[in-house]
Design goal:
Helices cover 88% and strands 0% of the residues. It has 199 residues and is mainly α. The longest helix is centred in the first third of the chain and has 46 residues.
C-alpha cells in the first residue's frame, strides 16, 4: 500500500479508489488492534483476578489486614491497565490521525454537490445564450437564393448598360467616323500651311 501511495505522490495524480483502499485497510487494522487490545485486556484482567483471588485467600487466612499488600496489588493492577490502555490506544490515535489526514486530502480533491450544481446551471445558461445568439444570427442572415437574385439583377443591369453604350458608339460612329476625323485633320493642316504669317 505504501508503494501505491508513493507512486501516486510521484506521479502527482490523485486516485480516489487507491485512497479509499488505503483508508479501508487502516480501518481493518484498527479493528484488528481493537480485537488484540480486547484479548490483552481480558488476559490482564484474568491475571489481576487471579492475583486478587490469591490475595483475598491470603487475606482471609490472616487475621490482620495487609494494607501494604493490597495497595501494592492495586497499584500494580492500575499500572498494568494504564500501560495496556496506552499501548492499545497509541496506534489507534495515530491511525485515526492518518485517516483524518487522508479524508482531508480526499475532501480537498473532490467537487462538492453545490459546486456541481453551480457548474451545471452555468453550463445550461451558456447553452441557452448560445442558442439565442445562433437564432439571432440566423434571423439576420439573407438566404443565398436572395443574394443570387440580387446578383442576377445587377448582371442584367450591366448587360443593359453595355448594350446602350454599344448602341451609342454605333450611332456616333455612323455620324462621325474615322474617315471624317482624318479628313478634318488634313483640312486643318492645309489651312495652317496656307496661312500667311503676320508681318
Amino acid at each position: 500500500m505504501a508503494d501505491i501511495d508513493m507512486a501516486n505522490q510521484t506521479n502527482g495524480t490523485f486516485d480516489p479508489a487507491t485512497q479509499y483502499a488505503r483508508i479501508s485497510e487502516r480501518v481493518e487494522n484498527q479493528g484488528r488492534d481493537i480485537v488484540d487490545l480486547r484479548s490483552n485486556m481480558n488476559t490482564g484482567f484474568r491475571n489481576i483476578e487471579s492475583l486478587v483471588n490469591s490475595l483475598a485467600s491470603e487475606l482471609r487466612g490472616s487475621s490482620k489486614t495487609q494494607w501494604p499488600v493490597l495497595l501494592t496489588a492495586v497499584g500494580v493492577a492500575f499500572t498494568i491497565l494504564v500501560a495496556a490502555g496506552t499501548q492499545a490506544l497509541s496506534p489507534i490515535r495515530e491511525n485515526v490521525s492518518d485517516v483524518k489526514d487522508a479524508l482531508t486530502v480526499i475532501a480537498d480533491k473532490m467537487v462538492t454537490q453545490a459546486e456541481m450544481k453551480w457548474r451545471t446551471d452555468r453550463g445550461q445558461e451558456d447553452r441557452t445564450r448560445t442558442v439565442a445568439d445562433i437564432a439571432d444570427i440566423r434571423a439576420s442572415l439573407v438566404p443565398r437564393a436572395e443574394h443570387e437574385r440580387v446578383w442576377a439583377n445587377f448582371d442584367q443591369r450591366f448587360a443593359d448598360e453595355q448594350r446602350q453604350i454599344d448602341e451609342i458608339k454605333a450611332a456616333t460612329a455612323s455620324v462621325y467616323n474615322q474617315r471624317d476625323v482624318i479628313r478634318d485633320i488634313l483640312e486643318r493642316l492645309d489651312r495652317a500651311e496656307h496661312r500667311v504669317p503676320p508681318p
